[in-house]
Amino acid sequence: MPQQFIVNIITQMEAGGAQKAAIQVCERLIEQGFRAEVWFLYKKRPTYTDRPFVRWLWDEKPASAPAFLALVVKLYHWLRLAKPDGVITYTHYANIIGQATAWLAGIRHRLATQRNPSWSYPAVARWFDRLIGSLGGYTRNVFVSHSVERSFRSYPSRYLQRSVVVFNGLRQPIATCDKATARQAFGLPVDRTIITSVGRLAHQKNHALLIEALSQVSPACCHLVIAGDGELRADLEQQIRDRHCTDRVTLLGELPPHRIGDLLAASDIFALPSRYEAFGFATVEAMMMGLPVVVSDLDVNREIIGDAGRFLPTDDVDQWRDTLRSLAEHEHLRLELGERARNRATLYDLDQMVAGYLHHLFTER
């Protein structure tokens, strides 16, 4: 029997959670004997260019309507030539563009994944997603958490009847060295509690609150390290200078995925004050490594983390300052919370996620 061929389509190449999901699903499919590839619509950063199963249609974000149309036409021709047995798409623009194009190209099995609350999508993306999903452009539609599912409850029944919840799963990050060596590799102090945050430097991730909270804590207490890049980097650098904490905050930039394990090994606490999330890949990775997690008090965080974390308002600097300081000063609290986090993280298994995707991709409804 010929190998089934599955194409995973995602909008831009960079080190984000959705990108990691597509890569890890593809790797596991290949391990299970499928032919599989990841297609990025365009390359924002060269994060995954070394992967043999990765392709990209455009070297940069299309800057004009003709360029965008040319990208869509190119995707159509790639799909017609490749003739995959199934297409899985990740992120709202990949859902709209990838699923509609695969539908027109005659690909029978098409699975969309909704990886953020519907209200966080741009208005035009919400409109097209609702339209294409209601018309049958998605043969199945996955919500990555019940919190995301609830945000779509007002959508038409024809959209919802094709939809199902499949929790994200992921591989545990691998640390290649011990804590002291990892700190040396990243240029981090060995005598302070390290608070780590991983995520794009964007409004959603709310890193400015972390910097503000840290600026109010004794310099001898802890050090904040943020891994990620994005449009707010210059603003955050200016905030760090204004708060006189250049010696207490490190912006690492975007890390290659294989270095995340070492960063988490160097860390004592994981903190992420996001304004919204759909699942929280970075948080679950930290939980897998046994770190205590301090996150925003969002429905999705309580759903995913359960009683294994601390939940704080997205706008209360005082609560973040006091909670982080308390954890930094009390190792036994960190160890207790970290063990609960490690146990909770076992729920988010990559094999279960892949099995769910395959079942819903190829099961007729």
Index terms:
single chain, 365 residues, Rossmann fold, 6-stranded parallel sheet, 15 helices, 19% strand, Glycosyl transferase family 1, transferase, glycosyltransferase activity
Helix content: 40-55%
Mean pLDDT: 95
> What name goes with the CATH superfamily of the largest domain?
Glycogen Phosphorylase B
Tell me the series of helices and strands, N- to C-terminal: EHEEHEHEHEHHEHEHEHEHEHEHEHHH
Q: Distance between termini?
A: 24 Å
- Quick one: biggest sheet? 7 strands, parallel
Look at the structure and give the CATH class of the largest domain.
Alpha Beta
Strands ordered across the widest β-sheet = 3-2-1-4-5-6-7
What do these coordinates show?
The chain has helices at 17-31, 65-82, 92-104, 123-135, 146-151, 157-160, 179-186, 207-215, 233-242, 260-265, 281-288, 299-305, 317-329, 331-345, 350-362; strands at 5-13, 35-43, 54-58, 86-90, 109-114, 140-143, 163-165, 193-198, 222-227, 249-253, 269-272, 293-296, 309-312. The chain is built from 15 helices and 13 strands. The mean pLDDT is 95. The strands form two sheets. A seven-stranded parallel β-sheet has the order 3-2-1-4-5-6-7, with helices on both faces. The longest helix has 18 residues, at 65-82. It folds into two domains: 5-169 and 349-362, Rossmann fold (3-Layer(aba) Sandwich); 179-345, Rossmann fold (3-Layer(aba) Sandwich). With 365 residues, the chain is of the alpha/beta class. α1 links the parallel β1 and β2.
